[in-house]
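Below is how a single chain appears once it has passed through the pipeline. First comes the sequence as given, then the structure the pipeline wrote out for it. We keep one example in the README because the format questions we get most often are answered faster by looking than by reading.
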Amino acid sequence: MTVDTTVPAPAAALVVLDDGNFSVQSAQLADYLQLPIVSDSGELPAYVLCYGAEGLALKQTGAKADGPVRVDFVSGTSAHRRIKGGGELIVKAVAGSKTRRPSVLDATAGLGRDAFVLANWGYPVTALERSPVVFSLLQDGLNRARAHGDLALQAVVGRIELLHEEAGAYLSSVASAPDVVVIDPMFPPSKKSALVKKDMRAFHYLVGPDHDSSQLLQAAYRVAVHRVVVKRPKKADYLAGEKPNLSIEGKAIRFDIYTKKAYGKA
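Resulting structure:
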């Protein structure tokens, strides 16, 4: 398979802010993303990328700025879900058996939360992210987790293969069909969660609206061996108007499941 390694420009104005403490990493990131690098806090766009002691962050600027958006699998919510978490809706939606975890293609990885949950439950996950900025944030989080001394955490992230690719192109030429394809199309920010609101506001600024999720569902269904799982707001319409075979609902979200072939069948 030929992989397009061209890095597209972000959809909105962005710079890499270098405070002098992480100059090498900042310069490498600016070169990779083809972004300007600045060393002062003068006239800045709405968001900047910057390195700190806790890794790479996307920060909003201005007087009423949100907190930084970064990927952290070592501490916080991800660590709690890994160590203390109980039943996870996405695990129920992907299903399979304890003796054979199906392979999962996370077609819209974002900040990697669903991929991390699935990997924690033993699923091998290929995670795709087409935005070069979001990909860089996720790659930084995975690298910090791999470098951490927690062997259990290293095993979890070791089950995640991260690729900077557009899902439609990947699905059209994938050599080995995944058992399950998971799709999490971008949807409006939740009014009940400050964290989701912060992340989604940044995503909408960076990458703009999601125009191809309907086509992605069709492509995923053609390729997946067993099922396609689509994450939706609980009260949202079905993606592309396609009614799923079944849905699993939580308080705010649901997972629509489009089945093809039962597990265990050749």
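The first strand starts at residue 15 and ends at 17.

See the next section for the split statistics.
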